[in-house]
Every structure is written in C-alpha cells, then in structure tokens.
Write a structure and sequence with these properties.
By secondary structure, this protein is α/β, with parallel strands linked by helices. It has 2 domains: about 5-170, 4-Layer Sandwich (Metallo-beta-lactamase, Chain A); about 175-255, no CATH class. About 35% of the residues lie in helices and about 20% in strands. A 6-stranded mixed beta sheet has the order 1-2-3-4-5-6, covered by helices on one side. A 6-stranded mixed beta sheet has the order 7-8-9-10-13-14. Helix 4 crosses helix 9 (about 245-255) and helix 5 (about 175-185) packs antiparallel against helix 6. Bound molecules: zinc ion and fe (iii) ion. Zinc ion (ZN) binds near residues 115 and 134.
Length: about 260
C-alpha cells in the first residue's frame, strides 16, 4: 500500500460521499452509496474506478446507489451482515471483529450499533483513517433510532477507546456547525469547543467541508464522547449518574434542540 488518497464530495442535501484510492494498485473504495450522479462525477473527476463499496448501514441515503455502482464498475459491496436483509446486493457480509483487505491494507470492521442495530465503522489502522457512518459525527452523533442510548454510548465509547488520537475520521453528514452550536449549550466552559465552533463557522461560511475530523479533536470537543467529563456532568446536574445516562441526557437535549 502506498499513501492512500481520499476524495470527499457532497451528496444529496447534507450527506458526504468518499473515495479512498491507492495509487499503486489502482484500487478504490467508495464509502457508502448516497448518490449515483455525485459518485459518478467524482469517479470521472479523479479517474479512480471503484473496486469496493463499504456500506455503514441500511438507511437509503447510504445505500441507494449500490446497484448503480455494481452495474457501472462491478465493485465488491461490503456491508453489515446484521442488515443484509435490508441492503440489496451485499457481496461480503461483515460484522464486529471482521476485516477486509484493500490494496494490501487491513480494513477493520467495528460494530457500532445504536443509530441502526447492525451499523459498522471501517478503520484502516495503518493509514490512520476511519469511516464512522451515522454513529460518530464531528462534535455529534447519530440519532438513536433502532438501539438504546446505552447501546449507542457503548459504541461511541468504544470508538473513542479504539481509534488512536491521530485517526482522520470521515462521517456520513455535514452536521458539524449545528452540532457545535448545540455542544456549547451542554459544555459551555470548554474552551477548545468554543474555539472549534468559531473555526467551523468560518469554514462553513466559505462553503467548505469540515471533515475529516480527528479522534483527538473529538475527545476534546464532542459532548457525546464526554459523558465522563466532570464539568459537563456538573453542568447537567448529573455528577453521580452512569456515563450512559449522561450520554442519554445529552442526546435527549439534542433531539429537542
Ligand atoms: Zn442513517
Ligand atoms: Fe444518514
């Protein structure tokens, strides 16, 4: 594996598509399949022909272009075994602890249930890259649709414990500014967070993407990873609550923000 190149591009309203490319082997992975036209445009612009698709979860805004990608490029579609009944055309069904080979690199699959029950993240330790779908967002996390808050907390806490600080993280949506505006309401004394809110506001004012984020930044500024933080707990009046309960309260507030 040579140094992997990553191309990020907007899809639909606020989704992201990602191409990951190894110049040496020519292999290219598409992360999720939100938008046929946008992905085909990105392929034409880069000249990188998809050989794999890594699907994070079954929601339509992550899967609808799968048949088109198989048709156009014959790419191998990798996706969560637990959601195989809801995703058409999975070639390779994976779950927590599995790994996939891509351009001579190991792609590790981490089960991150909560937003959906079978959701997975893809992590390339050697490239310090991770794709977290709708589980971990920059300063946010996905809504808990199918799982429980406790399950979602366990998934996020596991990502925080597993991914090294320098890992560059791409997620499924550009929600960063809205997430930051909410985050300061539950973590008002966090100087790194206040600073990051200003930085992402400036980036968005220029219409640029705020991704990738890093695990180091998320540990410092993402309230959904900071259920153990004393100041945040004190602010919520939950000094003695379990971490998952603090997470659940932060998620509840975000749902009504
Ligand atoms: Zn989703
Ligand atoms: Fe989504």
């Amino acid at each position: 594996m040579s140094e992997l190149a990553v191309h990020l591009f907007p899809c639909l309203t606020d989704n992201y598509g990602v191409l990951v490319h190894d110049p040496e082997s020519g292999e290219t992975a598409v992360v999720d399949a939100p938008d046929e036209a946008a992905i085909k445009r990105a392929v034409a612009e880069t000249g990188w022909t998809p050989t794999q698709v890594w699907v994070t979860h079954h929601h339509w805004d992550h899967t609808q272009a799968i048949p088109a990608l198989k048709d156009a490029y014959g790419a191998t579609v990798v996706g969560p075994r637990q959601e195989a009944a809801m995703i058409v055309d999975l070639d390779l069904k994976v779950g927590d602890g599995d790994s996939v080979q891509f351009a001579g690199a190991t792609v590790r699959v981490i089960g991150t249930p909560g937003h959906t029950l079978g959701q997975v993240a893809y992590w390339l330790p050697d490239a310090a890259l991770a794709f977290t779908g709708d589980t971990l967002f920059a300063m946010g996390c996905g809504r808990v649709f199918e799982g429980t808050p406790e399950m979602m907390w366990t998934s996020l806490d596991r990502l925080a414990a597993t991914l090294p600080a320098e890992t560059r993280i791409y997620c499924g949506h550009e929600y960063t500014l809205a997430n930051a505006k909410f985050a300061v309401t539950v973590d008002p004394d966090n100087a790194a967070l206040a600073e990051r809110l200003e930085a992402v506001a400036a980036i968005r004012a220029q219409g640029k993407p705020t991704l990738p984020t890093t695990m180091a930044e998320e540990r410092l500024t993402n309230p959904f990873l900071r259920a153990g933080d004393e100041a945040l707990r004190a602010h919520l009046g939950m000094a003695d609550a379990a971490d998952w309960e603090v997470f659940a309260e932060v998620r509840r507030r975000k749902d009504h923000f």
